[in-house]
Design brief:
mainly beta; 50 residues; 26% strand; three-stranded antiparallel β-sheet; single chain
Length: 50
């Protein structure tokens, strides 16, 4: 089972199937991948969870 959150669109998918659309981050960091390194502002950082 694979979950994927796309930072730039806010789409959450499970095994390639759309589940939900939301957002991560706040203010200028909301769904803005360029601000993922800004604590408490940017979206969820990219990465893999095994």
């Amino acid at each position: 089972m694979t979950w994927v959150f796309q930072q730039s669109t806010g789409k959450l998918k499970r095994d390639g199937n759309f589940v939900y659309q939301g957002y991560a981050g706040k203010g200028d960091g909301k769904v803005n991948p360029n601000m993922e390194s800004v604590p408490n502002i940017g979206p969820l950082p990219k990465g893999n969870i095994l």
